[in-house]
Automatic annotation (TrEMBL):
Belongs to the LOR family. PANTHER family: PTHR31087, TRANSLATION INITIATION FACTOR 2B FAMILY PROTEIN, PUTATIVE, EXPRESSED-RELATED (PTHR31087:SF131). Residues 9-25 have a biased composition (Low complexity). Residues 1-25 are annotated as: Disordered. It holds the Pfam family LOR. It comes from Oryza punctata. This is Tubby C-terminal domain-containing protein.
Length: 213
């Protein structure tokens, strides 16, 4: 299965940091909802050259102290924590906060909140709000489409997509493409995908396992 997703599964090339240049092309990633580690669940993400870009590993061990902080930690290919995705406690809605690094510094970057079902018709399924002045993201964003069908986009106030989830033909729902514009960057785009996965996967949440950092 790994060879069908991408051939260079042993490569460990870290993703390049996003640039603010307007002419920089988007980053195209292949996302596999599977860990390469034995007895783990999570995500394995490859860049356009087939090199390992990101990973998230959750141990399927019922006897361990699972989900001690209810954290999902996105790492680079070398295992360095990049982002921590944590569900907001005591929230009336399905709300996830994306923190910098391993989350120990409690520096929030983004909020991803599932849209409440109401009487008003809307294409939106979630809202993304920047929480840090250090991010070059001055506005809130909306997620439109269907994550379950692997066809959704994070859009700004003008309707332009800063990240898109697209189907990858002939490999099933657990493998799909993620296209991230430089304005958002690949790590944050992947962090939003992880939050969306928790919101819309029902009883198959990764937080039922123990996640490694």
């Amino acid at each position: 299965m790994a060879a069908k997703v991408h051939p260079n599964v042993s490569a460990a090339a870290a993703p390049e940091p996003p640039s603010q240049q307007q002419d920089e092309p988007p980053v195209v990633l292949t996302v596999w909802r599977k860990s390469l580690l034995f007895n783990c669940h999570g995500f394995t993400v490859f860049d356009a050259k087939g090199n390992l870009a990101f990973r998230l590993d959750c141990y399927d061990d019922a006897s361990s102290t699972r989900s001690r902080r209810a954290d999902l930690v996105l790492m680079d290919a070398a295992g360095k924590p990049l982002l921590t995705i944590r569900r907001k406690r005591l929230s009336l809605s399905d709300n996830w906060i994306i923190y910098d690094g391993d989350g120990a510094t409690a520096t929030p970057l983004l909020s991803v909140r599932r849209r409440r079902v109401g009487l008003r018709a809307s294409k939106a399924i979630a809202h993304v709000t920047p929480l840090s002045s250090s991010l070059p993201l001055p506005e809130a964003y909306v997620v439109e489409g269907s994550y379950g069908r692997r066809s959704c986009a994070v859009r700004d106030a003008r309707g332009d997509a800063v990240a898109e989830v697209r189907r990858k033909e002939s490999v099933g729902d657990d493998v799909f493409r993620l296209v991230a514009q430089p304005r958002l960057g690949a790590p944050l785009a992947m962090g939003i995908v992880i939050a969306m996965d928790e919101m819309f996967r029902g009883g198959r949440s990764l937080l039922r396992r123990t996640c490694s950092a």
